[in-house]
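Weekly modeling sync, notes
Attendees: S.R. (lead), two postdocs, one rotation student

Agenda item 3: backlog of single-chain predictions. S.R. asked that every request posted to the team notebook include the full sequence so nobody has to chase files. The rotation student volunteered to paste the first one in as an example of the format we agreed on. Action items at the bottom.

Example entry:
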Amino acid sequence: MSRRALSLSAYLTFARGAQAPAEHPPLLPDRGSGPVVMAYGETPSQGHALAALCSRLLYQRPEIQVILFGSAAAHAADTAMTGADLPPERASACEEFAAALRPDIVLWVGQKSLRPALLHSLREQGAQLVALDAENAPWSSPAPRWLPDPAPATLALFHKIHATTPQAGRDLRRLGVAPNHLRISGPLLDTGVPLGCDEDSREELAGLLGGRPVWLAARLRAAEVNDILRAHRRAVRMAHRLLLIIVPHDEAEAPAIARAVEAEQMRCANWDAGETLDDNTMVLMAEGPEELGMWYRLAPLAFLGGSLVAGHGGHDPMEAAALGTAILYGPNVGGHLAGYTRLVEAGAARIVRDADSLASALTNLTAPDQAAAMAHAGWDVATASAALVDQVVNEICEELDRKERV
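Predicted structure, as returned to the notebook:
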């Protein structure tokens, strides 16, 4: 037995003797007779992206039962998927869990919460284990320090590991992952279907704009509007025809935003009320995000709301990047930090902290070539992750077809 296998064996012995927790084992949904995919996401952004991948899978194979765990489970309520809790990392609990669920495929995203006993039990039940979004970072498990590290042997349980970068792939090979089990696939990001657009409305509005420079405040919160309006007023001094489009986070935010625009004495047209846009209009306002796909297509530059004020976690930046929009955002994006970080590294997004920094960014980026370069970089990031999603979905479908033939 290799040293790596011995480390996992020692850990499983430890997990078999672990004291049972006081709480009851997690409740699992009834397992149907069809194929089952289990998907675990560690961080909120990973859970969001993983749930989006599973939605794409269900679109192709609606007969699959998808059960989400970890941070991904929070997205089950809005989908045809089910959310559930993982068992405690105790050998008997993991074996009971795996025997009850019997998943055909396990998608695992997360390096700080590697679960050797659970993953071993799932593999023993015949599940195909796939790790996604493997980064150049340590792999951690609940093993006590006096045990040999079971992470390398646990990684050997996976049939495929998709690494984000060549360096992450080299690190995995040093940990003993076989080259034929390793893929360099890029990061896992939310690549949901791009927001739709009524082409007739878009063409009508594009004609009314008449080539005016435009920027968008998307999914704006009322607490952010004063900074947005101050920045717009400053930017207009340098670009006199600049138009601001405001799309509130939802209809509940719209009245307070409209009152703030009125208080600033900026000429405003309400698109949803059918008001006319002319050369003197400074702000064009929608009452909700229903037509956000059109606004992204019209505006080369967008500030994404819920990010200047704390408590909202920002909004998924891939929504804008996938439609070719350069991105500005505030510092409070903890709910989607990985996505913003990757866009910043690619040169597709820029952080602003207040009205002054937002005004400076607007002045620099209203030049078409500047915003276009950012937008192209963002589109590259979004489409690269789309290729990974397509690859994983195809591999899952092929594996399920193979199992049906056996």
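Discussion: group reviewed the output briefly. The domain at 199-383 is CATH 3.40.50.2000 (Rossmann fold).
Action items: rotation student to repeat for the remaining queue; S.R. to check formatting next week.
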